[in-house]
Amino acid sequence: VATKDVAIFFRQFSVMIDAGLPLVQCLEILGANQENPAFQKCLTGVRTTVEGGATLANAMRAYPKIFDDLTTNMIEAGETGGILDVILQRLAAYVEKAVKLKAAVKSAMIYPVSVISIAVLVVGALLKFVVPIFANLFMGLGVALPLPTRITMGLSKFVGDFWWFFILGGVGLVFGIKQVRKSPRGKYYLDKFM
To answer: pLDDT by residue (tens digit) across 148-179?
Structure first.
């Protein structure tokens, strides 16, 4: 379930509660109008649990991937204090700010990632296609070449022979990072490294 959908849900839910609609009716209306089938199923489950006599916070705790601990604890506080509509408005504002921040970070990262990617591709193309031409020219001279030139020529030969290794390594790195981020411990260490 997208965070944006959760923000819209909290905003609509707070307006309905503020208008005086019963809790179960609010959940029924919001569940029926939800386009995302996973979120619709979640809201139907929450409504059924609330109809069974549980509190809204306890019903939401059954779906930890959608409603985190902060959300459920705030809702529990709102239910206890009788200010559920205010808490839902605050949750909506909080989630909306989180969505905006995430979007801002993503848009800010597009430029540096694209520049670095293009730079890597250009350097790889130079090492694979241009440097070998100069290497043949330098070898024809028969003189001792300086160390940086020999390193560049060796790197060019390595890239020319093992270009497939870099492609597989890049794909493996992206896949590996995604796998590491799936576990909480891996996410913690990756974020600590970053």
So the answer is: 888 988 888 888 888 888 889 888 988 988 88
Residue labelled with tokens 């029926």: 32
Yes or no: say if 40 and 9 are a contact pair by the CB < 8 Å rule.
Answer: no
Among residues 11, 189, 188, which one has the least CA distance to residue 96? 11
> For 62, which DSSP code?
T
Gap between the Cα atoms of 99 and 64, Å rounded: 18
User: With contact defined as beta carbons under 8 Å apart, do 145 and 154 qualify?
Assistant: no
**71-84, pLDDT tens digit by residue?**
999 999 999 998 98
B/e letters for 149-182, b = 16+ CB within 10 Å, e = fewer, are: eeebbeebeebeeeeeeeeeeeeeeeeeeeeeee
What tokens appear for 102 in the block?
A: 């995430």
Instruction: Supply the DSSP string of 157-183, one letter for each residue.
Output: HHHHHSHHHHHHHHHHHHHHHHHHHHS
Q: ∠ at Cα 73 (91, 56), nearest 5°?
A: 85
> Using an 8 Å Cβ cutoff, are 7 and 30 in contact?
no
Phi, psi of 66 (to 5 degrees): -100, -45
